[in-house]
């Protein structure tokens, strides 16, 4: 008998992946965690029935949320990562010699435990000496920080349920205060394609744009995410994501990537007309 994992992107749209076997399934204090082995996408991590990553396409997400800000802020060495208990963002950050500290705040220790056991390709750098893991509520953690980080990466799940508080005006204000005078915040902004996701993206962008003097949105194609079309937010106190990109310096690092390039970096900020209009709608209010 064939086994399939299905995720509803809307009540009328479902994405399904054939499963060879289920490797892990536990209910934590916060969510249900499952890891499946699949023939097309390798191992797949889901939380409460939603795909968080697959071995096949996780590099797209992790490279774009990490290397875009790192290529702009060339002095970034103190970094806060919120969520990302799978370790993919940490893995990418540890590739930079200049990084001195990575504080990872993950609400659910069972996510880290599961990924260490079943997704070692992501979790392989969690024991790097520069990584400090805090199992606590990110909203409480960030309130205690002021003028401390060069970069904050918010790698949360979608703005429903346990992660809802990471998309509020208060949270973005606390991130602003936690950043140094030239700090950058990058977050996942979801998909603009389906109505509920698009509305959540607009709410988030409006709050970020009212908090940071520079706020832009960029895009990537991620096959297993809703509509295969995903957005990230770039918010900064001083740096412009294109004007302040030093492509020559980043390329001199000779860092091998599978998705990110400095040419793609620039192109990712050029958005389709419908999305530009959606962002203008909330920026002008």
From TrEMBL:
Q: Name one GO biological process term.
A: spermidine biosynthetic process
* Stretches that traverse the bilayer: none
> Which key words tag this protein in UniProt?
Polyamine biosynthesis, Spermidine biosynthesis, Transferase
Spell out the InterPro entries in the cross-references.
PABS, SAM-dependent_MTases_sf, Spermi_synthase, Spermidine_synt_N, Spermidine_synt_N_sf
Its UniProt pathway annotation is: Amine and polyamine biosynthesis; spermidine biosynthesis; spermidine from putrescine: step 1/1
Q: Where is the active site?
A: 155
GO molecular function of the protein, one example? spermidine synthase activity
Q: Which Gene3D superfamilies match?
A: Spermidine synthase, tetramerisation domain (2.30.140.10), Vaccinia Virus protein VP39 (3.40.50.150)
Q: Which PROSITE patterns match?
A: PABS_2
Question: What Gene Ontology terms describe where this protein resides (cellular component)?
Answer: cytosol
EC number(s) for this protein?
2.5.1.16
What highest taxon heads this organism's lineage?
Bacteria
Pfam families, per the entry: Spermine_synt_N, Spermine_synth
Enzyme class comes to transferase
Q: Which residues bind S-methyl-5'-thioadenosine?
A: 31, 106, 137-138, 162
Q: Which reaction does it catalyse?
A: S-adenosyl 3-(methylsulfanyl)propylamine + putrescine = S-methyl-5'-thioadenosine + spermidine + H(+)
Q: Which residues form the PABS domain?
A: 2-237
- Family to which this protein belongs: Belongs to the spermidine/spermine synthase family.
Q: What does this protein do?
A: Catalyzes the irreversible transfer of a propylamine group from the amino donor S-adenosylmethioninamine (decarboxy-AdoMet) to putrescine (1,4-diaminobutane) to yield spermidine.
Assembly, per entry: Homodimer or homotetramer.
Q: Which PANTHER family match?
A: SPERMIDINE SYNTHASE (PTHR11558:SF11), SPERMIDINE/SPERMINE SYNTHASE (PTHR11558)
Q: Cross-referenced HAMAP family, in alphabetical order?
A: Spermidine_synth
Can you say what this protein is called? Answer: Polyamine aminopropyltransferase
Name of the gene encoding the protein in the UniProt record: speE
